[in-house]
Prior knowledge:
The structure is a single chain. The protein is about 35% helix and about 25% strand. By secondary structure, it is α/β, with parallel strands linked by helices. The strands form 2 sheets. A 6-stranded mixed sheet has the order 6-9-8-7-10-11, sandwiched between helices. The protein folds into 2 domains: about 5-80, ATPase, nucleotide binding domain (Nucleotidyltransferase, domain 5); about 85-254, ATPase, nucleotide binding domain (Nucleotidyltransferase, domain 5). It starts with 5 loop residues before the first strand and ends with a helix. Helix 3 crosses helix 8 (about 240-254) and helix 4 (about 145-155) packs across helix 6. Its EC number is 2.7.1.33.
Amino acid sequence: MTKKNFLLADVGNTYTKVEVHYGVEIQQIAFNSFTDDRNFPRDQWQHIIKEYDVQDVFYSSVIPAFHSEIEQLNVSGRIMRVHSELRLPFTIAYCTPFTLGSDRICVVSAAAQRKSSASLIISAGTCITFDVLVGTTYIGGSISPGVKMRAKAMHHFTQALPEVDVFKFNALWKEENPLFVGKTTEECLLAGSVQGAAFEINEYINRLSQMHENLNIYLTGGDAITLEKLIKSDIFARPNMCLEGLNILYKLNA
């Protein structure tokens, strides 16, 4: 039986990360989730599908408006979307499983494969999500604003505070002085946006660790590189955890 070429896609609010499996090769590609005029980048998708002779597409998307666009792509096989009714490597103890984001299902699937007594998956993107897995049961978590959203909100909801580039925090923070104290308004906004998120993460880890011994902690998402150095606990940094979960789910449901 000929092995299918398949494309896994993690469609985020800003970027889309795809992983193409063709033959024995794997190619990872990233591009903007929107065109310059805020439309679906169909040409980009079709170019990749044609170049790698993709038969199946399996995707996670946090942009509901794109679901129909993706499902109309021209492929010779199937197009499948991640949702809570798929065959999963964990059980869901969540009051509204149909509202559970596909990106969260993917990262929890990746953690479930590692079979630990308890896991916390922290996804630092547009929002920061905390997902708790006990054994192979998903029990829920938390959603809060991401570092960029915090910075934008302080600018948007006030008259005088400027919008800051949170990536500037990386150049200001020094390991020998772990508490960054801002000396200008811009620096204070950076401290509040980035350190505030880190304080929240550290306290969530602290409290959950008191409830579950041998807690495995995973950090993923676009802002993981900024936050990783501010987290006090031992963590597994996995920048492509959503794609890992997509691969697991594709093999379970293909």
